[in-house]
Amino acid sequence: MIRLPKVSLTAAALLLASAAPVWAETHTITPGEGAQERLQEALILAEPGDEIVLEAGRYVLTDGLSLDVDGVTVRGAGMDGTVLDFTTQAGSGEGLLVTSDNVTLRDFALENPQGDGIKSKGADNIVYYRVRVTWTNGPDAGNGAYGIYPVESTGVLIDGAKVTGASDAGIYVGQSNLITVRNSIAEANVAGIEIENSRNALVEHNIATRNTGGILIFDLPGLPVMGGGNVIVANNLVVANDTPNFAPPGNIVAGVRRGTGIMVMANDNVLIEDNILQHNPTAPIMVIAYTQQTDDERYNPLPREVIVGTNNYGVGGDDPQLEGADMLLAAFGGALPPVMWDGLGSMTAVAGTQGWSLNLTEAGVGLDGASPSPLTVPEPEAEFNRDGIGAPAELEGRI
User: Fold this and answer.
1) Nearest to residue 216, comparing CAs of 226, 208, 224?
2) Which end of the chain is more exposed for a tag (fewer CB within 10 A), N or C?
3) What is the pLDDT of residues 304-357, one digit of tens each?
4) 153-187: per-residue pLDDT in tens?
5) Fold for the domain defined by 48-398
6) Cα dihedral angle (251, 255, 257, 262), rounded to 10 degrees?
């Protein structure tokens, strides 16, 4: 009788785990005839751990793509090397929809999707790395609303992305938790980067330029996930956000004023520090309440515990898109101070911060109810608590 060596359950589990990559497959897709069908088939038939490799070239696609398999990587040959061209896409859906967890999207581009670029919904621990979404006709209300669009997710890492031309937000993260957006470029969108109804978000080392508004931190009523907050906006270059607003009428960002650098609206516990703000003609930094009527009892329309730290302010506030701009400019000597607060909610700022307040007594009354004056707010009393803010560390291992 042959006796086999004993193997502990722990050792056996380790052996199985180490063998898992052997079972994973690589599905290589090339551009050309039939690329639409071959790519969608690979997205459907992939198994967890598989990698779909998109070789260099331009893929002319006439319909949207979808992925609903956990643990898949979609990898191209670079954001300028592999281009998914949706110019002739039928319908108005997104270019790529992801509804599965632990997905990595990297090193490819989408051009001219009829709807959103890449939307991931309920996709936890998702990574967007060096992905580009571009509408090649420039700012246009007919462009898709969102370029990169994760929503209802826990664990989001967006790194090295670039989005141009979105008619709502270039890089948008909504109703999510544990988020990092970094090293990315948002250019010529209505909103460059938007964090909405989300918590524990880190927005750092990005460039937001030529948008209507550069970086927006919003909380809105009537959504399944409420209570946005715990957000750090740091070390970003927010410059020349001076594109006229081209959002379709009725869209919430249609109210964003041309020349807004960083805006916080109705959020809780937000830190803004170490950013470079230059040539944002309405306001380099704006802290405001939500102004519309709502019957959502869960909603707090006021900004709370917003901290304006040390930032580098260049030229700005010199062409504000505000009612009574001429009188305001005259009162403040030709340019508005860099930090604007509507006077509602609560905020603090480091010593020496130059700003102005509308001194509103209630939301929604507009500038008719304002009594503008230089900003007077207390200094922060304690260090900002950074614990738990940002994407889970394990997502780093996938890039």
Assistant:
1) 208
2) N
3) 999 999 999 999 999 999 988 999 999 999 999 999 999 999 999 999 999 999
4) 999 999 999 999 999 999 999 999 999 999 999 99
5) Pectate Lyase C-like (2.160.20)
6) -70
Distance CA 269, CA 102 (A): 29
Q: Which two tokens stand for residue 226?
A: 């409420």
**Cβ neighbours around 326 below 10 Å, total:** 8
CB atoms within 10 A of CB 122: 16
Instruction: Specify the pTM.
Output: 0.93
